[in-house]
Specification:
It is a single chain. Strand 1 (32-37), helix 2 (41-54) and strand 2 form a beta-alpha-beta unit. The protein has 2 domains: 32-110 and 222-256, D-Maltodextrin-Binding Protein, domain 2 (3-Layer(aba) Sandwich), CATH 3.40.190.10; 112-218, D-Maltodextrin-Binding Protein, domain 2 (3-Layer(aba) Sandwich), CATH 3.40.190.10. The protein is α/β, with parallel strands linked by helices. The protein starts with a helix and ends in an 8-residue tail after the last helix. It is elongated. The protein has a 5-stranded mixed sheet, sandwiched between helices. The protein contains 12 helices and 10 strands. Helix content is 38%, strand content 20%. The protein has helices at residues 5-14, 41-54, 67-75, 89-96, 125-128, 150-161, 165-168, 178-187, 197-200, 203-208, 235-245, 248-256, and strands at 32-37, 60-65, 82-85, 106-111, 113-118, 141-144, 172-175, 192-196, 209-213, 222-228. The longest helix is centred in the first third of the chain and has 14 residues, at 41-54. Belongs to the bacterial solute-binding protein ModA family.
Length: 264
């Protein structure tokens, strides 16, 4: 009886049923998909590179945006494995809704606000501090949209606490997230902005501007945390990234960008 294995193999390859690698080889794991708060953009760029060295072969795709918008998307089962939020309440709400694994819920940092101007700005930020918002050159003031961005809510709270909100309100311009807010000030669409310290410490903004840290007592704690989604396609890689984020190496990267887990 003739051996039909080779002709059959050729036929299957021709019609796409077999890869060139051959029968029985398992497919590579899916890419780890992370939804991350925009204030993590600089820190996670470094974190991703360090994680790749520790976990070669694991593909990681990070999408940045406002935590509130991600929460809305994840309530509709958006295709992410891991959610890193600038407000720990959003991951908690996903757990309560039965869409995330409560056993994986974790706190990773506390964010901080700064007032930021470009280096060439005529606003004497270092001398005026928060009163710089009342300087005549502060014609447009950028904050993240408080409807869905935790840093926007913190900025609004700080302005109210310091008695500046009513004076500043007519000049406010809103970024979709804190990264877009930073872009507004950096590109001249706004004159001054309330940004995340983590972005102000990123090399591009640190070289291009001047910052004044908003008093911590002026706004509620920006406790940040994450969770694995129940529909995660790459749970193993998501757990590995979470553990790396909380490791001494991960914590050191976060500290370089102004994140802290210390008490206020």
């Amino acid at each position: 009886m003739p051996d039909l294995r080779q002709p059959l193999r050729a036929l299957l390859v021709t019609f796409g049923f077999l890869g060139l690698a051959g029968i029985g080889r398992s497919a590579p794991p899916p890419t780890l998909a992370i939804a991350a708060a925009a204030d993590l953009q600089a820190a996670l760029g470094e974190m991703k590179a360090a994680f790749a060295k520790a976990h070669p072969g694991t593909e990681v795709a990070i999408t940045y945006g406002s935590s509130g918008n991600f929460y809305t998307q994840l309530m509709s089962r958006a295709p992410f494995d891991l959610f890193l939020s600038a407000d720990l309440d959003y991951p908690k709400k996903l757990v309560a809704a039965g869409l995330a694994d409560g056993s994986t819920l974790f706190h990773y940092s506390r964010g901080r606000l700064v007032l930021w101007v470009p280096k060439g700005s005529p606003i004497p930020l270092e001398q005026l501090g928060m009163q710089a918002l009342l300087h005549p050159a502060a014609r447009k003031v950028a904050i993240a949209n408080p409807r869905h961005a935790p840093y926007g809510r913190a900025a609004e709270a700080a302005l109210a606490k310091l008695g500046l909100l009513e004076a500043v309100r007519p000049r406010l311009v809103f970024g979709e997230n804190i990264a877009q807010t930073a872009q507004f000030v950096q590109t001249g669409a706004a004159d001054i902005g309330l940004l995340a310290l983590s972005l102000a410490k990123a090399p591009n903004l640190a070289a291009a501007g001047r910052a004044f840290e908003v008093p911590l007592a002026a706004y509620p704690a920006l406790d940040q945390g994450g969770v694995l989604l129940n529909h995660a396609r790459n749970r193993a890689a998501a757990l590995a990234f979470r553990d790396f984020l909380r490791s001494p190496e991960g914590a050191a990267i976060l500290r370089r960008y102004g994140f802290t887990t210390e008490d206020r």
